[in-house]
Design brief:
This protein has a single domain, classed as TonB-dependent receptor, beta-barrel domain (Maltoporin, Chain A), CATH 2.40.170.20. The protein has 10 helices and 46 strands. The strands form 10 sheets. It has a 22-stranded antiparallel barrel. A 5-stranded mixed beta sheet has the order 12-17-18-15-16. The N terminus is likely disordered. It is found in: Cell outer membrane.
Length: 828
């Protein structure tokens, strides 16, 4: 989406005043703020960035496009710099080397451009044309300079330059000492992604379909770690707050997203409990202050059809208040017999700029899924190979149409409040309340009924769940100098609380002949019901310091968490509870060469308290992980192309695993994962964009699984299931901009996923597979139909049959067959 409003290149201190919601949180925040005051008082020789026009700093900024050079300078200088895109378009800068004040530096950077920078005071500069009569007239309300702007906003193309996922502040990807990948809105659209997981298919280090062609949850396995949950999904900086041990998991449709940031490796220092493999941060669409309206319709194979709308703009003449309303209705028959998907969702939001320094965004998200589609697996013998001459088809359904059901209703309210106190201190507060209702009945395969026949034994599980949760994150940020070193100090405290009321049923259903399935006589027998109330509370305090010293970049962080989990059995009137505290750290160092090379090394930790119990009803010990990562990033001067190579080693213990036919969890020993990831985001020409990725993951059990040892087996040295050793991806998009084909867009990609293992004993392989995707689009505005676009997407173009992975020899998961969709959108 384009806009003619002010373009902000970088940002000074900003953000917002905490709002307290409980005594516990109040005490934690007071302690955090006291820690900030004490920490600042103890810094020797600290020079506050009181006046950017007087403080001299050393810069080493390479030549390049003027807007990119100004962006880099303003971020390093800690100033707010505003301009319009038209002023800097097509202009180049010779860069900046040496020690300058902000005013001196801007004079050098703008030399020969016909532009000048006017000091507005309060660390704010406006770029305008010369002579004076051509000066850019900007009302004060147009100067919006908060720290996260260029890390969260919309962008064109595939190449994001900044992200906030690794540091909770806007930081250039090339200067981040950990692997971060970004999926932009345009990439989501061009590749026709129907789920968040699908949108990350071309991201190295990420396996997005471990449970096959299901769309019910956004399962993401990262760097070989897959615990069967979606606990690594974050929305607008806050954990999605689903419950691992239940079916109540929040899912956001990708139509409502602006971008997806993927952080590889442990990240507990800033986020508390998290997976050692990494996390996925979703940024939703926010109001914009330029009128924008879009409607779209789509149809496709498997009965897919949908309608969506997205509208935004200012509500007042001063443009201090803006709204956005996004909605979607979508349905599909799915590739599996007797299964349907259906979704209705709407997201209203409102942004208010109270002043240049204070901003509030209010959001709501309401989603109802009357039909959740297919979610099942079948035995390897029958999926990976024929059984008695029968191989289960891409459409096979082992359930029972009259019984199977999945209905979910979720709603959330959230806000992001930002306030800039002065040139040094800023604050932010993010809050979300979430509510979810799930009703589910599922008939599933329990293995073959005899030694060599084609009859499947079937079992039943059902559940009615109600989940309530809220999470709040408060941050105070200070930007200051100690000598020539610039510090961005972040002190925060977060609190989250979750309660899930669940009622689970279990039973049996008559067998099914897979060679000749006959439905309608399931004969459900419910054998029992268990009722629980599960609770989680977490309070965390964290401190981070980002240091810029000449061309060095240092990142230091620490965090203390207190977590309490409990499970009340309402049938036996018993309670199991567990309290844990955990201390985690992170450190990284990076050197930014003038030629765009940036080698780095980092260390990070994670922990995740297990809210699930073993077969004796005792909570499992928290999962803990540590990672060493080293790599090199390269961003050619004057370009936003980014090349990344990283090697990593993660050690993790106490991972919880649940077999589909068990109602308890098991510890799986200790796991070690190490590997290599390569990634490239390249704008080759104005017409051609490329995405490339390679993943090599060597993951194994470094300590035996206790349950196997007790049965006389040993899995030490074996690889976990659902962890392919190699993955390769390449996507290209070409946009014709002239001649007879002007307006035409062609895209295509190849994804290779290497073999994985079907069981913990590594007795059987899941074969590798290669998939081809394609897209075709046309801007009908070239034919006089302004604002109208059409797009055709085909996934798995060759319609290859493949098994994505197996959780065990009894549960293997069918991959997505070829699906083709056509989308027409109109923007006005």
């Amino acid at each position: 989406m384009s806009t003619n409003r002010v373009k902000l290149y970088a940002f000074g201190a900003n953000d917002f005043r905490p709002v307290l919601h409980s005594d516990l949180l109040s005490n934690a925040i007071r302690a955090a703020l006291l820690g900030t005051a004490l920490g600042l008082a103890m810094v020797p020789g600290m020079t506050l960035a009181a006046d950017a026009s007087q403080v001299s700093s050393t810069y080493a900024i390479a030549p390049g496009p003027l807007d990119e050079v100004l962006n880099q300078f303003a971020r390093q200088a800690g100033i707010t710099l505003s301009s319009t895109p038209a002023l800097t378009q097509g202009l180049q800068s010779k860069g900046l080397h040496g020690q300058y004040s902000a005013e001196q530096a801007l004079g050098v950077l703008l030399a020969g451009s016909g532009l000048t920078a006017v000091n507005q005071g309060n660390r704010t500069f406006i770029v305008q044309a010369q002579p004076a009569e051509a000066a850019l007239a900007l009302p004060d309300t147009d100067i919006r300079g908060f720290t996260l702007g260029n890390a969260l906003g919309s962008m064109e193309g595939y190449n994001a330059t900044h992200s906030q996922v690794a540091t909770k502040s806007s930081l250039a990807l090339v200067e981040t000492s950990q692997s971060v990948s970004v999926v932009t809105r345009q990439q989501i659209d061009d590749q026709g992604s129907q789920t968040v997981a699908q949108a990350m298919r071309y991201t190295p280090g990420v396996m997005t379909n471990p449970y096959g062609a299901t769309h019910r949850y956004d399962y993401v396995a990262m760097r070989g770690f897959n615990d069967g949950s979606v606990d690594n999904i974050y929305v607008d900086g806050l954990k999605s707050m689903g419950d691992n041990g239940t079916y109540s998991t929040m899912q956001v449709d990708p139509y409502f997203l602006e971008r997806i940031d993927v952080l590889k490796g442990p990240s507990s220092v800033l986020y508390g409990r998290s997976s050692p493999g990494g996390l996925v941060a979703l940024t939703t669409k926010k109001p914009v202050f330029t009128a924008f309206h879009q409607v779209q319709a789509s149809v496709g194979t498997q009965g897919q059809r949908g309608l969506g709308f997205d509208t935004s703009g200012p509500l007042d003449a001063d443009e201090r208040i803006a709204y956005r309303l996004t909605g979607l209705a979508d349905a599909s028959d799915t590739q599996f017999d007797h299964n349907k998907e259906e979704r209705y969702a709407i997201a209203p939001s409102l942004s208010i700029d109270f002043s240049e320094d204070t901003s509030l965004t209010l959001q709501a998200y309401l989603q109802h899924d009357p039909n959740g589609g297919y979610h099942g697996g079948n035995p390897a013998n029958g999926m990976l190979s024929k059984r008695n001459g029968v191989r289960l088809s891409d459409h096979f359904f082992e359930g029972e149409p009259g019984i199977d059901n999945y209905e979910r209703t979720q709603q959330s309210f959230s806000y992001q409040f930002e306030h800039r106190f002065n040139d040094v201190f800023t604050a932010r507060q993010n809050f979300r309340y979430q509510d979810s209702d799930v009703s589910m009945d599922q008939v599933y395969s329990a293995g073959w009924a005899d030694a060599d026949g084609t009859v499947l034994t079937r079992a039943y599980t059902g559940g009615d769940e109600r989940l309530h949760s809220y999470i709040i994150d408060n941050m105070v940020q200070a930007e200051f100098f100690t000598g020539i070193a610039k510090h961005t100090l972040l002190l925060g405290t977060d609190y989250q609380r979750r309660k899930a009321d669940v009622s689970w049923r279990y039973g049996t259903v008559d067998p099914l002949d897979a060679a000749n399935p006959q439905y309608g006589n399931g004969n459900l027998r419910v054998l029992g019901e268990n009722r629980y109330q599960r609770r989680l509370q977490q309070t965390g305090v964290y401190l981070q310091d980002l240091v810029e010293l000449d061309q060095w970049r240092f990142s230091l962080g620490l965090r203390q968490d207190w977590v309490k989990v409990s499970e009340d059995n309402r049938d036996t009137d018993t309670r199991v509870s567990d309290k844990r505290s955990n201390f985690t750290t992170r450190a990284g160092v990076l050197y930014l060469f003038e030629n765009g090379l940036a080698p780095y090394v980092s260390y990070s930790e994670s922990f995740n308290p297990n809210t699930v119990s073993d077969q004796d009803g005792k909570p499992l010990a928290p999962t803990e992980g540590t990672q060493w990562e080293a790599g090199i990033k390269y961003q050619p001067p004057g370009s936003d192309n980014l090349y990344t190579a990283s090697v990593f080693r993660i050690e993790q213990e106490n991972l919880a695993s649940k077999q589909p036919d068990e109602d308890f969890y098991r510890p799986v020993g200790q796991v070690r994962s190490q590997g290599l990831e390569l990634e490239a985001h390249v704008q080759v020409t104005d017409n051609l964009k490329l995405l490339g990725g390679y993943t090599y993951t060597d993951i194994e059990y470094s300590k035996s699984m206790p349950s196997l040892v007790s049965s006389g087996l040993d899995n030490k040295g074996n690889s976990p299931t659902q962890a392919p050793e190699q993955m390769v991806s390449l996507w290209a998009d070409y946009n014709f901009r002239q001649g007879a084909l002007d307006g035409l867009k062609l895209g295509g990609g190849v994804r290779y996923v290497g073999h994985s293992w079907a069981d913990a004993e590594n007795s059987r392989k899941v074969p590798s597979y290669t998939l081809v995707d394609a897209s075709l689009g046309y801007d009908l505005g070239k034919l006089g139909l302004k604002g109208l676009d059409v797009r055709l997407n085909a996934n798995n173009l060759t319609n290859q049959r493949y098994i994505t992975s197996c959780a065990s020899l009894n549960y293997c998961y069918m991959g997505e067959e070829r699906n083709v969709s056509a989308t027409v959108s109109y923007q006005f």
